[in-house]
Amino acid sequence: MSNSGFYWVRPPSALAADFEKYGKRVEVALYAAANAWGQHIQYAARDERPWQDRTSHAKTGLFYAVDGLGQGEIVGDISPGARALMKEVERVEAKGNEIIIVLAHTVFYGKYLETSHGGRYAIIMSTIEANLPRLERLIRNSYGSA
Q1: What is the rounded average pLDDT for all residues in the chain?
Q2: Residue 75 structural domain
Q3: Would the CA dihedral through 104, 110, 111, 114 be positive or negative?
Q4: Whole-prediction pTM value?
Q5: Is residue 57 a part of any domain in this protein?
Q6: 104 burial via Cβ count (<10 Å: 0-12, 13-18, 19+)
Q7: For residue 97, is it within any domain?
Q8: Total structural domains in the chain?
Q9: Does 2 map to a domain?
C-alpha cells in the first residue's frame, strides 16, 4: 500500500508560533517607521516654518510623539525653554493595535500660529501632508523587511 495524502512537514503549533513571531516583528518595524517619520517631520517643520523665530522657543518647541502597540511613548527633542512653555499640550494615548504619531507645538501661542492670519504661519498640517508619501514608503518597507 502506498503512502499518499496530506501530511505536516511542520506541526500547526510551530506555524502558529512563527506567525506570532512575524506579527511581533512587523509591529516593531512599524513602530520604528513611525518614530523615523516623526523625527523627519519634526525637523522638516522646524526647517520650513513660515515665521521668523525671535526666541527659538516656537521652533525648538515643535515636536513629535509616537505611541502605540504597547511599545511605550517616544517624544522628540524639545529645548528646555520651549518645554517650560508647555502648558496646553494634550497627551494622546494609543489604544489596542493603534499607532499615533503627533506633530505639535509646545508654546502656548502655537495654536495662533496655526490658525490666525488665514493660516499664513501654519506648519503642522502642511508638513504632515507633504510627508505622507514618505510614511507610506516606510510602512511598505516595514512589511517587506519584517
Answers
A1: 87
A2: 14-145
A3: negative
A4: 0.81
A5: yes
A6: buried
A7: yes
A8: 1
A9: no
Question: Which of 83, 68, 58 has the alpha carbon at shortest distance from 30?
Answer: 68
Q: What is the pLDDT of residues 62-115, one digit of tens each?
A: 999 999 988 888 888 888 888 787 776 677 788 888 999 999 998 888 999 999
For 3, the grid coordinates are: 503512502
Q: Residues 6 or more apart from 87 whose CB is under 8 A from it?
A: 108
The secondary element (H helix, E strand) that includes residue 2 is: none
Q: 120 pLDDT band (50/70/90 cuts)?
A: very high
The helix/strand/coil state of 100 is strand
Contact in structure between 100 and 67 (CB atoms under 8 Å): yes
Question: How far is residue 99's CA from residue 64's CA, in Å, rounded to a whole number?
Answer: 13
Asked, for residue 4, whether it belongs to a domain, the answer is no
